[in-house]
Design brief:
71% of the residues lie in helices and 7% in strands. The chain is α+β, with helices and mostly antiparallel strands and 533 residues long. It folds into three domains: 14-46 and 444-532, no CATH class; 50-187 and 410-433, no CATH class; 214-397. It has a four-stranded antiparallel β-sheet. It is rod-shaped.
């Protein structure tokens, strides 16, 4: 037996690999083609799944926000999640399954809940974000997978319509809810404002005259009352002085009357003359000692004037008496003098009574004015307290009024936004790409299956060829002999007959034809998977 040399052999060259591959060409090609064909056929045996997709664009409201501020502030992604949960609910999906007769084959062995779960897995929603703005959504995609392309298109179209209708309904409902909430808050604020207005009115009615705004008028009225009190006090003092004077004059008249009653034999005119002379002497004496304003002098002069007035009346009555016939009765003759003496007394008494009534009236007026002064002083003293109380009420009223006006403005703005939503002028969902009718199945990807089967066949064929070449211990070339220690004795060239050459050429043609058929099948299979898969 020839043993190989123990020395290390040089690394195999590319020529060695080429020769080994050539020797194992049929094993390599058959394994490659077989694995590719198995993968390709497996891809075509899988059921085709078609996916129809639509793109929905998110349009902003048509009226600028500086004119109408939207009252739906929920984030778009949150709203989409909410709409997705609503549309993907069991009742909605069961209705679609019944209307379009979906999963007719699966109904025999699947429950309604399982059919709904199956449909949920066939529906896919993808969000499209704005370039450079990951948090801002511009559109989203809705797709549905089915074995029937037209059915996939119908379901996708219905899902698209549901999303658009649900968006309009949700936005309108949220807008109306916002407006209704603001209206309720406005009503409550209006009631509170009306209560505070009534409280202020009740406070002003209760403390009328003590309010801060009436302080100046109260001061003016108080000043006028004080002036009237001074005027009435002066008039009262004058009335009291007049009362003293008339009482003194009455006393003098009564003294004259008494003197007439004690000395009837003396004529009344003589008595008055004597009284006048006495008073004149008294006035002259007092004038030398006092000024004209001295009370004694003033009193004496008044008494003198009264006596002279009495003298004039007596003289006038005496003249009228002389013109009448005289009587023999002495009592009757003296009656006119006594009557004349009584007339000034009666007049003075009536004047004193009138003056007393005037004093009483003026005193009542002064008392009334002083009571009014006290009332207005009390009002002025309580004005700071009322001012603080009114300030508290007014502060609460101003806050409630500001709150009411703010709510009114918000409610009006919300009503504009609600009208905008009802007219479909707000943020809307518009179909950018309608659901398409898929021409190729979405799954399985037969071209990918074919490509991976080709790669797997190539790797497995290469691995098998290398393994067979490794376990093969035959000598195929001169290089193989160099691995052994036995020297080369002779080199016999290959001698072939013409028939053998013809057979070899025919075999080569057959091999090239087989290789061309395998390559053509792989190429046509991949093209078919590309265009139809």
């Amino acid at each position: 037996m020839i043993e190989p040399q123990q020395e290390s052999t040089p690394l195999a060259t590319i020529e060695t690999y080429r020769e080994a591959l050539y020797r194992r060409r049929w094993c390599f090609l058959l394994i490659l083609f077989g694995i590719w064909l198995a993968g390709w056929l497996f891809a075509w045996l899988l059921p085709a799944v078609y996916r129809s997709q639509s793109v929905i664009l998110i349009e902003q409201q048509k009226v600028p926000e500086q004119y109408v501020t939207p009252n739906v502030s929920i984030d778009l992604q949150e709203r989409l999640n909410s709409m997705t949960q609503t549309i993907m609910s069991r009742t909605r999906l069961e209705r679609i399954i019944e209307e379009l007769h979906l999963y007719s084959k699966e109904r025999a062995h699947m429950s309604p809940e399982e059919l709904v779960d199956r449909m949920r897995s066939d529906i896919r929603i993808d969000l499209v974000q704005a370039p450079g703005k990951r948090e801002e959504l511009t559109a989203f995609k809705i797709s549905y997978s089915s074995a029937d392309p037209r059915l996939a298109q119908q379901v996708t179209s219905q899902l698209t319509s549901l999303f658009i209708e649900e968006n309009l309904r949700v936005r309108e409902q949220q807008s109306e809810s916002t407006t209704g909430f603001l209206q309720n808050q406005l009503d409550d604020a209006g009631k509170q404002l009306a209560q505070q207005e009534q409280s202020i009115r009740d406070f002003k009615d209760k403390y009328l005259g003590q309010l801060p705004g009436q302080m100046q008028s109260n001061v003016g009225i108080l000043s006028g009352l004080q002036g009237r009190v001074e005027a009435e006090s002066d008039a009262l003092n004058r009335a009291k002085q007049q009362d003293l004077y008339m009482h003194s004059l009455l006393a003098q008249y009564k003294a004259v009357r008494d003197s007439l009653q004690h000395s009837k034999e003396v004529p009344l005119s003589d008595q008055v003359d004597h009284e006048i002379n006495t008073l004149k002497s008294q006035v002259a004496d007092l004038s030398t000692r006092y000024t004209d304003r001295h009370p004694d002098l003033v009193k004496a002069r008044k008494q003198l004037a009264a006596a002279e007035a009495l003298k004039s009346k007596i003289d006038a009555e005496s003249q009228s008496k002389n013109s009448k016939p005289s009587t023999d009765d002495p009592e009757t003759a003296r009656t006119p003098a006594e009557v004349n003496a009584m007339t000034p007394i009666i007049q003075l008494e009536s004047q004193i009574k009138a003056n007393d009534r005037d004093i009483t009236y003026r005193q009542k007026i002064i008392d009334s004015l002083e009571a009014q002064i006290g009332d207005y002083q009390r009002r002025l003293n309580e004005t700071p307290v009322r001012e603080q109380q009114l300030a508290d009420l007014t502060r609460n009223y101003d806050q409630s009024r500001a709150n009411y006006e703010s709510l009114l403005a918000k409610k009006n703005q919300s009503e504009l936004a609600t009208n905008l939503e009802k007219r479909q002028q707000g943020e809307q969902l518009r179909v950018l790409d309608p659901p398409n009718l898929p021409a190729k199945p979405y799954s399985p990807d037969r071209l990918r299956y074919s490509f991976f089967a080709l790669v797997a066949g190539f790797m497995f064929a290469l691995l098998v060829s290398a393994g067979l070449e490794t376990i093969d211990d035959r000598v195929h070339s001169e290089r193989d002999l160099k691995e052994f220690s036995t020297p080369l004795l002779a080199d016999i060239p290959s001698l072939t007959l013409p028939s053998e050459d013809a057979a070899r050429r025919l075999r080569n043609r057959f091999e090239w034809a087989a290789v061309a058929v395998i390559v053509l099948c792989i190429g046509l299979g991949n093209l078919l998977a590309y265009y139809r898969g």
